[in-house]
TrEMBL record:
<dbReference type="Pfam" id="PF01765">
    <property type="entry name" value="RRF"/>
</dbReference>
<dbReference type="GO" id="GO:0043023">
    <property type="term" value="F:ribosomal large subunit binding"/>
</dbReference>
<dbReference type="InterPro" id="IPR023584">
    <property type="entry name" value="Ribosome_recyc_fac_dom"/>
</dbReference>
<feature type="domain" description="Ribosome recycling factor">
    <location>
        <begin position="21"/>
        <end position="184"/>
    </location>
</feature>
<keyword id="KW-0963">Cytoplasm</keyword>
<feature type="region of interest" description="Disordered">
    <location>
        <begin position="143"/>
        <end position="162"/>
    </location>
</feature>
<dbReference type="GO" id="GO:0005829">
    <property type="term" value="C:cytosol"/>
</dbReference>
<comment type="function">
    <text>Responsible for the release of ribosomes from messenger RNA at the termination of protein biosynthesis. May increase the efficiency of translation by recycling ribosomes from one round of translation to another.</text>
</comment>
<protein>
    <recommendedName>
        <fullName>Ribosome-recycling factor</fullName>
    </recommendedName>
</protein>
<dbReference type="InterPro" id="IPR002661">
    <property type="entry name" value="Ribosome_recyc_fac"/>
</dbReference>
<dbReference type="InterPro" id="IPR036191">
    <property type="entry name" value="RRF_sf"/>
</dbReference>
<comment type="similarity">
    <text>Belongs to the RRF family.</text>
</comment>
<dbReference type="GO" id="GO:0002184">
    <property type="term" value="P:cytoplasmic translational termination"/>
</dbReference>
<keyword id="KW-0648">Protein biosynthesis</keyword>
Amino acid sequence: MTIADIKKTTQTKMDQSIEALKSNLGKVRTGRANPQLLDTIHVEYYGSMVPLSQVANVTLLDSRTISVQPWEKNMGAKIEKSIRESDLGLNPASMGDLIRVPMPPMSEERRKEMTKLARTEGENSKIAIRNLRRDANEGVKKLVKDKEASEDDQKRSEAEVQKLTDKHIADIDALVAAKEQEIMAI
């Protein structure tokens, strides 16, 4: 493995960490409706638990209402029960074969809890990025120790990996700040 390989691998893994953060922040509830909120819900389907998205079409009706359209008529009650029993605090209402999930307005206290959750997700991503930086630097040190790279190469690569780390941490800060703003908006 060369220094270039180590940098490329580190870049890829850091980008994946950012994508994971985006996905996790998408699941944090804000005042607006978001179909991703229901991604964590599983429904019993012929004896096994499957994600809601595999048994129904989840879309937005308006900014405060998610609609769930089951693909099989007999699934409506099971989907409704799963949403109601989830820890999201949602109360679905069935209208024929369409299930409407209105988003209740969040209290100030709940908004602050959600903001803390978003910050925690951001902090976890920063830790992952820093661990990747450490792994990359250790990989380069091993190459120097095995005399496959010079100490100058090591210094250069550590500086480049640090720039990469700084860029990704700035991206994380921006994502978390945007999510906090979205949560606190009424």
